[in-house]
Specification:
five-stranded antiparallel sheet; Dna Ligase, domain 1; four-stranded mixed sheet; single chain; D-amino Acid Aminotransferase, Chain A, domain 1; Rossmann fold; about 35% helix; globular; alpha+beta
């Protein structure tokens, strides 16, 4: 990122045309607090940019109002007449942005699309570049990269939505999925925050879960369900990545779904996770290997399953723009590793590159 004695202008991009729009707003509020807190208030000038649900980009006048309310913008309250959906140009007030800081979750933000725009603009940005973002977003590509790196994963089946059309091949596919055993998890390949995921326990639920996931994404993944502890590790850096302490998520729900993740009191975090040192070191080592396999730098949160009885560790997924809400593991893991929120976002800005 540019070295200057004057405050650096940070273009904070949030919202987005995805099912995780509301989570992005909450994450952006936390990042904004970090960028405007402590010493950062002298280092940075934040220029907020809001992407509405139709993909239109709005400058500080609209973005500030969304951050203040914490709610998605009502289309009736946006400046009229509304421009066409999708990106057309950068909004007014962003001409002097030095570094772009995307706080976007899901498709059209976390998947390399916005990162490609920043690359075309030849401006530095926080987080993974195009390749790491794209591979980390698509669970099929991500699993292939992990498999190539010999990182252990639970058994899974990848499929395309068009394979669900009635045919003899479809029946063979369903039998191959059922060989994973019940319960299993049906997932759209390109959504996060557990959006569109179903836990299925029989053929009927499997059929329903596949149909629901196929409405959200043409690429699907079905994973074997395992009885295991859920561990998470945060990664930070550019040329030299470092891993945080390991955290654990515990919850009373049947599984860690969207509502459990983002409803206060529905889950408990243990940081650091109560684990033997050897297991913690294994998690941290594999988190760094996962970033290397996918081509990720800047930041990531890597999630694992751990079977204590069998001493088995499986990598679940990598998140290249992890949640940054006040309930999110990424900032909490770094806080317990010695970085305040202000220090964390400062270090993240320092990792910005093209």
């Amino acid at each position: 990122m540019p070295k200057t004695s004057t405050p650096v202008q940070i273009g904070l991009v949030f919202g987005g045309d995805s099912g995780e729009h509301a989570v992005s707003i909450r994450s952006a509020i936390t990042v904004l607090q970090g960028l405007r807190g402590g010493e950062n208030r002298h280092r940075y000038v934040v220029v907020p940019v809001y992407i509405d649900r139709q993909g239109r980009w709005w400058g500080p006048a609209v973005a500030d109002a969304v951050l203040e309310s914490g709610q998605p913008a009502d289309e009736q309250a946006l400046p009229q007449p509304l421009p066409p959906s999708g990106f057309r140009s950068l909004p007014e007030g962003t001409e002097a942005v030095d570094v772009w800081y995307p706080v976007l979750h899901g498709p059209n933000g976390e998947d390399g699309t916005v990162q490609g725009l920043f690359r075309l603009m030849q401006r530095p940005f926080v987080g993974a570049a195009v390749l790491g973002s794209a591979v980390g977003m698509d669970k099929q590509a991500m699993k292939a990269a992990f498999a190539a790196a010999d990182l252990p994963q639970v058994p899974y089946v990848c499929l395309q939505a068009n394979e669900l059309e009635p045919s003899e091949a479809r029946e063979q596919l369903l039998k191959r999925i059922e060989a994973l055993g019940y319960p299993c998890f049906v997932k759209p390949a390109n959504l996060g925050s557990s959006v569109g995921i179903s836990k299925v326990r029989n053929r009927e639920e499997l059929e329903i879960g596949l149909r629901q996931a196929a409405e959200l994404d043409p690429r699907l993944v079905v994973e074997q369900g395992v009885s295991a502890r859920e561990l998470e590790c945060a990664v930070l850096g550019r040329d030299q990545l470092k891993a945080s302490v390991v955290g654990e998520i515990r919850f009373d729900a049947d599984w860690y779904d969207y509502e459990t993740k983002y409803t206060s009191g529905r889950s408990t975090t243990l940081i650091p996770a109560p684990l033997p040192d050897e297991v913690s070191q294994r998690v941290r080592r594999q988190a760094l290997l996962a970033c290397e396999a996918v081509g990720v730098h800047g930041m990531a949160r890597v999630d694992f399953f751990f079977d204590e009885e069998a001493n088995a560790l499986w990598i679940n997924e990598i998140n290249t723009l992890p949640g940054f809400t006040d309930q999110s593991m990424y900032p909490m893991l770094w806080e317990n590793s010695g970085l305040t929120l202000e220090q964390l976002v400062h270090e993240l800005v320092q990792t910005a590159g093209q």
